[in-house]
Design brief:
- The longest helix has 13 residues.
- Strand 2 and strand 3 form a beta hairpin.
- By secondary structure, this protein is mainly beta.
- The protein is elongated, with a radius of gyration of 17 Å.
Length: about 100
């Protein structure tokens, strides 16, 4: 008897400050990588699919990205670039 299947892994690559396309607020976005791996006898062997996405922490909206977009965002986060609010003062939170 052979036992096989798939298992998903979710990796958070970076936290980015972006303007959300859904709610329009400048908020933190989590850059995530979802990898589905083929398993044999509950041992993950090789990746079957890789998907990238960002999720707004303000409204929860998700946006799918391709690999090149995700690499650009991750490189910008590591180098301190790609932040549209960098160098501009932000308004304080008002309740």
């Amino acid at each position: 008897m052979i036992i096989f299947g798939t298992k998903g892994y979710l990796y958070q690559l970076a936290m980015l400050t972006l303007v959300c396309g859904n709610c329009g607020n400048p908020a933190a976005h989590a850059l995530r990588k979802h990898v589905t791996k083929f398993t044999l006898f509950f041992v993950p062997l090789f990746p079957v699919s890789v998907k990238y996405s960002t999720q707004c922490t303000f409204c929860g909206a998700q946006r799918r990205l391709n690999a090149s977009e995700a690499e650009q965002l991750q490189a910008g986060a590591a180098g301190g670039q790609g932040d549209p609010l960098q160098g501009r003062p932000q308004q304080p939170y008002q309740s």
